[in-house]
Amino acid sequence: MFSIVFCTKLRYHFNHANDNHYHIAGYIQRVGGKKVSAQEAVLQGAQTRKARAAGFYTVFIAGLIVLILLSAVFSVSIGQVHVPFGQAMKILLHALTGGRLGSLEQVDNASFVNIVMQVRMPRVVFALLIGIGLSLCGAVMQAVVQNPLADPYILGISSGASLGATFAILVGFGSGTILSQFGVASAAFIGATVTALGVLLLSSIGGRATSVKLVLSGVVVGSMCGSFSSLITYFANDAEGIKSVTFWMMGSLGSASWGKVPVMAGVVLAGSLLFLLQHRILNTMLLGDESAVTLGINLSLYRKLYMAGAALVTGTMVAYAGMIGFVGLIIPHIVRGMFGADHKRLMPASLLLGSLFLIWADILSRTLVHNVELPIGIITSVIGSPVFIYMIIKKGYNFGG
Amino acid sequence: MKLTATNMEIRIGRKDIVKRVSVQVQEKQFVGLIGPNGCGKSTLLKGIYKSLTPHGGEVFLDGMNVLRTPEKKVSQKLGVVGQFNEMHFDLTVHQMVLLGRTPHKKMLEPDNGSDREIVDEALRRTNLLGYKDRSFLSLSGGEKQRVVLARTIAQQPEFMILDEPTNHLDVRYQIEILSCVKNLGIGVLAALHDLEMAAHYCDYLYAVKDGEVYAHGRPEDVLTPENIEEIYEVKCQTYINPITNHLAFAYNL
Predict the structure, then answer these.
(1) A358: three-class secondary structure by DSSP
(2) Per the CB < 8 Å rule, is B88 touching A147?
(3) Rounded mean pLDDT of chain B?
(4) Which burial class, exposed, middle or buried, applies to B43 when counting CB atoms under 10 A from its CB (0-12, 13-18, 19+)?
(5) Which residues of B touch A150 (CB under 8 A)?
(6) B37 occurs within a structural domain
(7) What is the CATH number of the domain that holds A279?
(8) Best label site of A89, A93, A207, B75, fewest CB within 10 Å?
(9) Using CB atoms and an 8 Å cut-off, which of residues 109-168 of chain B contact chain A?
C-alpha cells in the first residue's frame, strides 16, 4: 500500500517538475541525476512487489496440488462403506508404488482394497480429469471468442451432444446396424463434434472467423439442435427414456470405470499440454484481431484450431459424464480475479482449481442426501452461482472488462 | 527501412475506397497521410499492414514483398499503432508491452532477460515505468495509447505505421506520442488529422481525397490554402505562428 502511494506522489512530482519539457525520449536525460535514481526506486519497488506476487503464485499452486491429493484420498474413503482415511491412503500408496510403499497388512477388511481401487478410484480420477478439462476448455473458449461469458459448452456443443444422447436413448439406431453398437456416449460425442464442426464452417463463410460470428453461429446451430431434441422428446412415448435423458443432461460421474479412464486421460491431458504451451497466442487473442495481426498472429486460423481442440476435449467429457455446468465458466474467472488474465499463470491455476472443485462437488453429490446420489451438475451450479454473485458484489471483479 | 506501396486498390463491399494509390517512404523519413474522415487513409494503411487484403497493388519493405510474406515475418520489421484498442480481459501494462516481443519468439520460447530489458527500455521511452503493474483497462485514453506505443517499440520494428495515433488525445499526449515516435529514428507512415502536427513532424506529406492522392510533397508545399480548401472543403489561411515559428492554420466555413 505504501509503495503505491509513494509511486503516485513521485509521478505527481515528475509531471510538475517537467512542465516545460515535452519530449519523452530525451526526458530521462533532462531530469536531474537525483530524480533518475528516484525513478529507479519506483522500478525496484515494482520488482519486489512482483517477486512477492510470484512467490504467492507458487505457494498457491503447490497448495492446490497437496489439497487435490488429500481430497482424492478423502473421496475414496467415504461412501456407504466407510474406509478409514489412513487405510485408504495406504491402499492408494500401495497401488501407486506397486507395493513398495504402504503395506496392506493393517487394512481391516479385505474388501476395502476392492472398494477403493475398483469402485471409487475411477470416479475420483474422472472428477479430477473432468475438472481439469472443463476449466481448460472454459479458459480457452473465453479467450477464443473474447467474451467473459463463454464456457466449454458455448458454440452449440451442449445442444449437439444432447441431441445425440436424446436420439440414442429415445430413438436408438435400430438393431442390427453398425450404429446400434454405439451407446449414448458415442452418440453424444458425435453430436458434439458434428455441431462444433458445423459452427466452425458457418463462421468461416465469407472470410475470417471473427468472435462475433463464432458466437452467433453457435447460438443458431445450438437452437436448431435444441429444437430437434425437443421434437424427439415430444413424440417419444417412453417415460423411462425421458427420465434418463434428463438425468444425462444434469451430468453424472456414475459411469466412471477403469475401462474409460485411458481415453479420457489421453484426451484431457493431451489437450492440457497443448494449451498450456499456447499462453503467448492466447494472450495475443485478448488484444483482438487487429492488434494480433500486427504482432504476426493470424487469429482466424488459431481460433479455428483452438476451437476444434477444445470441442474434442469437451465432446469426450460430455460423452462420458453428461453436462456439468458452471465449472468451465467460473473457475477461470476466479483465477483471473486472483492472478490476472495472463494465460501463463491463468491456465495452470485454473486446471488445478477446477479439478479440486470437481472432486469436492463429487464428494458432496454422494454425501449430501443419504443413500442418494445427486447429479453432479446440480451441485456445481448450486455452489457456482453464489460464488459468482459474491464475486460481482463483494470483490469488485469486473469479469475481465 | 524503405516502404513502397504501388497502385493500391481496396474495395469494401462494392465501393472503391482506395483507388490506385501509391506512396513511398524513404529511409528514416516521417511521412504523413492527411485527408478528411472517410477519404480512405485508414483503409490504405490497413491494406499495407495486412489487416485488409488489397484487391490490387504491391507493398515492399526494402526487398520484402509484404503482401506475400507471412504475418510473423512482416511483424518482425513492421510495427503498427492503431486507432482503437478495445479489450474484454485485463492485462497489466507490463504484460501488454511484453506481448510486443511475440513476433521475435518461437512457438515455445519463454521470455528471457533481454526481452525484459527491451520492455523496460520501451516503458522508459514512453514514460510508463511507474505504470508497470497497473491494469491496462484502468488507464486513461492517453495512457492506453502510450502503452500500445510502448508495445510497438518493444517489437523493435524497423518501420512503423501509425493510424491516427493521437485521435481523442489531449494536446500534451499528442506531442508526447509524436515526439517519441520521431525520436526512434526509423521510417514512419502516419495518418494524422491535425494539420499543425502534420506540418511540424512530417518530412513529406500525402494528401488523400476520395481514395486518391490529391497532392504530395514537402509539408509547406502541400499545405497551401488552395489545397486545404479543396481537400477539406473549408476556407483556410496559413501563417507562421510567431511564437513557435511553425506553420499554422486558420479555418472558416
Answers:
(1) helix
(2) yes
(3) 91
(4) buried
(5) none
(6) yes
(7) 1.10.3470.10
(8) A207
(9) 120, 124-127, 129-130, 132-133, 135, 137, 148, 152, 155
Asked whether residue A33 is assigned to any structural domain, the reply reads no
Q: Which of residues 115-144 of A touch B (CB under 8 A)?
A: 142-143
Contact A157, A196 (CB under 8 A): yes
Put simply, whether A287 touches B (Cβ < 8 Å) is yes
CATH assignment of the domain containing B181 = 3.40.50.300
Sheet of B56-61, strands arranged across: B15-25, B3-12, B56-61, B64-65
For A31-57, write each residue's pLDDT tens digit: 334 444 555 555 566 566 666 777 899
Structural domain tally of chain B?
1
**Is B71 a member of any domain?**
yes
CB–CB of A387/A338 below 8 Å? Answer: no
Residue A24 lies in a domain: no
What share of chain B in percent tops pLDDT 70?
99
Cα dihedral across residues B176, B177, B178, B179: positive or negative: positive
**Cα A68 to Cα A48: distance, rounded to the nearest angstrom:** 30
For the segment B50-106, what is each residue's pLDDT rounded down to a tens digit?
888 899 999 999 999 999 999 999 999 999 998 766 777 888 999 999 999 999 988
Q: Which of B150, B243, B206, B74 is nearest to A298 (CA)?
A: B74
Amino acid at B171: V
Is the CB of residue B159 less than 8 Å from the CB of residue B1? yes
DSSP string for residues in A186-216: HHHHHHHHHHHHHHHHHHHTTS---HHHHHH
Distance CA B210, CA B233 (A): 12
Q: Which candidate from A11, A43, A296 shows the least CB-CB separation from B102?
A: A296
ipTM of the modeled complex: 0.87
Residue A289, pLDDT > 70, answer yes
Please tell me the total count of domains within chain A: 1
Would residue A15 count as lying in a domain?
no
CB pairs under 8 A between A and B: 126
Structural domain harbouring B60: 3-88+156-252
Q: Which of residues 8-67 of B touch A (CB under 8 A)?
A: 49-51
Contact A123, A362 (CB under 8 A): yes
pLDDT at B158 over 90: yes
Grid cell listed for B121: 527500455
DSSP secondary structure letter of residue B37: T
Whether A45 maps to a domain, the answer reads no
Does the pLDDT of residue B213 top 90, yes or no? yes
Q: Which residues of A touch B126 (CB under 8 A)?
A: 24
Q: Is A400 on the interface with B (CB under 8 A)?
A: yes
Instruction: Mention every residue, 6+ apart, whose C-beta is less than 8 A from residue A13.
Output: A35
Domain holding A186, by residue range, is 126-393
> How far, in Å, are A133, A291, B4, B69 from residue A139 at the CA level?
10, 21, 42, 32
Is B182 inside a domain boundary?
yes
